[in-house]
Structure formats: structure tokens, C-alpha cells
Amino acid sequence: MGVPSDDDAVLIQKGKKPGEPYVITVNCPDKTGLGCDICHIILEFGLYTTKADVSTDGIWCYVVLWVIPHPSSPVVKWANLKERLLSICPSCTTSFYWNPPSPRPSSPPIYLLKFCCSDRRGLLHDVTRALDELELSIQRVKVTTTPDGCVLDLFFIRDNLELLHTKERQNETCEQLHAVLGESCISCELQLAGPQYDNLLCISSMSSVVAEELFRCTLSDKEIRSQALSPDVRELKKASVITDNSLSPSHTLLQINCIDHKGFLYDIMRTLKDCNIQIAYGRFSTVQKGRRELDLFIRHQDGKKIVDPEKQEALCSRLKLEMLHPLRVVITNRGPDTELLVGNPVELSGRGRPRVFYDVTFALKSLGICIFSAEIGRHSAADREWEVYRFLLDENCTFQLSNMVIRNQIVDKVRRILMGW
């Protein structure tokens, strides 16, 4: 029997008719968290999964995803997507000949992109979109506006193509940025990040009241009422997560029914990965009346079914929380100013959720709201690590930011963009 080629591990097939989904097939040796890694990349490329099938025997994995580009996403570079997916697939040769696993590749180095230019509405999102098109992943941001109307932006980025050490790639990045900024660009520098990167890992201090609201474990009644414009938020509380041990002698059936949202499959996969749960088979059905159904046959990492009622309840509660509340959005006062905060849990591996900064800046741009300052950092609360995005909003806009109705509309718009509603 011949050994499968590593290049055949990922196949991407275009739909036969315009508007039909692309079909992505991943056929490779299995590894812990592979499903989560695949879903993370799919979300990062701005793709929406219409349905999916997953099957594995613990040694070999077969995944089929039907995906379409999200309307707010830039043009998808399918060849680059295939390369990214191939990069996370274990080698077929290693699986067949039992070679010792190769050392885990180190993460691409962090670079500091620093530029100064005149401020304008939508600037931050335009820069974010340009970096996204270049496949430069934003790790941290520090954005400030000077009294004379200029902005000084520090973007700490990783190159998903791992070519930023070359002069050609650096020039391409700066040229793309100059094209976005135009004549307003005063300076632009790109260099390896130094110790100053570590100093931006933690965000500025926040009040205990804001932290409690941002990191609470459930959607509060107050939050539900404030989102009266968004019936989707009320529908979130109707999610169903149940387990059944009667259908398989070796696996527990996990059945999930919930309102659909962007990153739904990723939220399930990252939670199961962090809980050390293995998936043997799964089917992710198409949307029915705005809701998703997901059937998974799962087991503990030790190969045993989940029979302990307390462990079943803990897993169901954790999954429901991650589905109902994957992203937290709060608007509050920061001294005399208005601040928007967005938080999402970080995987145990330390990886954050993709495209959050992109979506928030897009929502604020569509509302016509300028951003006075912005930062991304990490915060520990409720026994886990969170990625927190903080935006100080410019009061010189068409909105009366002190008005509670206006604030609720801003939160509603940002949440709807983040959730894909």
C-alpha cells in the first residue's frame, strides 16, 4: 500500500454553481486539538461554515467542511488557506513509519509596525483590513491620538506567511500601508519587537464593577434588557446541550442545539480541546430557522465514556456558557470619556480568537464613530485568561455618547457584527 502524499492532506473544491459553498477536505493523521486548529484558521480567513462532518479513529482524521466567505470579509486567498491548513496537519510519513515526531515549530517572531499620520474616520479599520489582506496577524495594539489631530499607532504583528524577515515582504507591507494612508502618512517603521512588547501584554487597570460585568459567567437580566433591539440575544438563552450514553458502547453522544453565530463550530471545538475531550464522529447540520444542530460522539482523553453525572453536567454547563457568551461587549465611562470594551476567553494554549479587532473596528466605522485610542491586552479573571480590547471613543461624532439609548445601540451593533447576525 502506498503512503499518502502530504500535499493531498488538504483539498479545496469550488462549488459547481455561483453561490454554492466551497468544500474543504482534510485527510491526515490525527492529533490532539486538530479540529480546533482547523476551525480557528477557517474563522481567521473570514469563512462561514454551513455544515461539517468529522470522523476519526484516534490515529487518522477525516474532516469535510462546506464554507462560504462572510460578506464583510476581503477576498479569500484559497491557495494561502490550503498552505495554512497543511501547516497544522501531521506528516503522513510520520504516521506510517513511526518516525519520532518533529519538534513543534516555534511561533513566528513578533514585529513592531509603527506609523504616524493624520487622523480620519475609519482609519483604524482601514489599516486593520490592509494587514488582514497581507495575512499579518495582529497580536497587540497601542493607538493614541495627539492634540494636533495626528495618530501614533503601534501594531505588534506576526506574519502568517513567515516572510517578514525578508526585505521584499517588509517593503510590500509598508507600500500597502502607504496606499491606505495616502499623503497623510508622516512616518512608517517596521522592525522586530523588543522588550516593549512584553510591557503591553497587560491592559490598563479597570474598575471592579466593569470587570465584573465584562467577565461574568452568564448573560445578566440587565444585559438582556439593554439589548431589546436584538432578539438574537434573548434567543441565546434557549440553547440545549445534552448527553446520552445509551446509543454507543464506547462513546457518549453530545447533542447541541443553539442559535447560529459566527465561530459557532470553533467555540465548540476549543471548549472540548480545553476540557481534554476527544471526538470520534461529528455532524454539523445546516441552519434550520436560524438554529444549529450538532451531534458529536465523544470520550475522555483516556478513552472512556463520560458516565459521571457531575462531569456530564460540568461539560454541558461549560459548553452552554461558551456558546451563549463567547464575546463580551460593555460600554462604560472612563473618567469623562466613553469606553467600549470587548472580551473573549483565551484557549489554554494561549491563542486568542481571530478577527475580533477587525470586526469591532468595522462596526465602529459603519456607525461613523472615531476611535481616540485603542489597546489589546490580557487579563486574568474567573480562573481563566481573557483577551480584552479597549476603545476610547471620540466624542466629536454625530452620536451623543452619554445617551443610554445610543450606548445600547452601539453595543448592539458591535455584538451583531462579532456574532455574524
From TrEMBL:
Coiled-coil residues: none
Single annotated GO MF: amino acid binding
Protein origin, superkingdom: Eukaryota
ACT domain: residues covered: 112-195
InterPro entries named among the record's database cross-references: ACR1-12 (IPR040217), ACR2/9/10_N (IPR056816), ACT-like_dom_sf (IPR045865), ACT_ACR9/10_C (IPR056805), ACT_dom (IPR002912)
Record Pfam families: ACR10_N, ACT_ACR9_3rd, ACT_ACR9_C
Keyword list, A-Z: Repeat
Segments traversing the membrane: none
Role: Binds amino acids.
Protein name: ACT domain-containing protein ACR
Lineage start: Eukaryota, Viridiplantae, Streptophyta, Embryophyta, Tracheophyta
